Prior knowledge:
Elements (H helix, E strand, L loop, with lengths): L1 E5 L12 E5 L14 E9 L4 H4 L18 E11 L9 E7 L3 E4 L6 E2 L16 H13 L7 E4 L7 H10 L3 E6 L2 H10 L4 E4 L6 H8 L4 E6 L4 H9 E9 L19 H4 L3 E4 L9 H13 L7 E5 L4 H7 L8 E5 L4
Helix pairs in contact: 2-3, 5-6
The structure holds NADPH dihydro-nicotinamide-adenine-dinucleotide phosphate.
NADPH dihydro-nicotinamide-adenine-dinucleotide phosphate (NDP) binds next to helix 2.
Amino acid sequence: NKQVILKNYVNGPPKESDMSLKTSTINLKIPDGCNDAVLVKNLYLSCDPYMLGRMKKIEGHYTDAFAIGSPMVGYGVSRVLESSHPNYKKGDLIWGFTGWEEYTLVTDPSTSFKIHDKDVPLSYYTGLLGMAGMTAYAGFFEVCSPKKGETVFISAASGAVGQLVGQFAKLMGCYVVGSAGSKDKVDLLKNKFGFDDAFNYKEERNYNAALKRYFPYGIDIYFENVGGKMLEAVLNNMRVHGRIAVCGMISQYNLEHPEGVHNLSALISKRIRMEGFLVLDYYHLYPKFLEMVMPHIKKGKITYVEDMADGLESAPAALVGLFSGRNVGKQVVVVAKE
Ligand code: NDP
């Protein structure tokens, strides 16, 4: 059983060398007495920025740190090889938490979702139809309270979550602009995901001026993925009664001293609602989300770009790449094809 293990807790930016590959033997049977478990073959693994939090020892973090020397854990799509759980049987496809390895004994599959609709690429259940999709859906529709005609700004807009938020906002009839870190990503936003406009934040010296250019009358909704100086510039450009959904602050995760935001008083003068959220609190909406999104995917009204890394060997580099913007779209690791 090939595995990606955490070698040491991460200090500062994550490096490939914080992880290593290991091969161990595994008995492809559920051990006697291990009830309510499933033994799975992992097909696709999801690389997610939050995993960095589990690679560090952080007091009071909302998830536990990974164990050193054990396989990393993340979202993935897997096939059930054997089950001692009444809800799963051999051959079922599921998505949920699994190990970064070829085969995993999932001892608590109750948090996994069974995959019923297989008319779409299975890898979508690591992103569009998995955690990232739910994050975009809950963050935009539940937290932002969008209305037709409003102006929406999304940072890290071409990523797993951002590309969907933009498409949801377009479906709602909003004016949508995104920022991303390369020309290719900006092209994707404008030409593939249907954003009204987009800019490369790495080429803008003055975020404030850039936002004024794209939003001369201000921003109603900001879907926050990066934090720091971008947030500060957005606050200057928000409209009265605007909403900010704080999904992530990836520009801050690796800083020893996170940057301060100096103009939070804009929240008062502009009566802005700024709300952090965790997708974990919204999984009860998953059936409603599927009902809404599936027809759009099948009619080609929602599209999704994935960045496929081949083989478990490529998983450490793929994960680390999220923090330098190497991924174009949702970062997936292909462990096995069915
Ligand atoms: P992405 O697919 O967007 O990948 C991360 C992207 O972030 C990179 O491609 C890069 O794009 C951008 N980035 C990396 N470093 C920086 C930086 N220093 N400054 C600005 N941008 C940077 O990831 P996800 O879509 O999976 O996640 C997006 C955000 O949502 C993250 O902040 C994540 O933590 C958060 N999140 C929150 C959840 C919740 O429940 N609240 C759940 C899931 C995700 P670029 O080239 O454009 O810079």
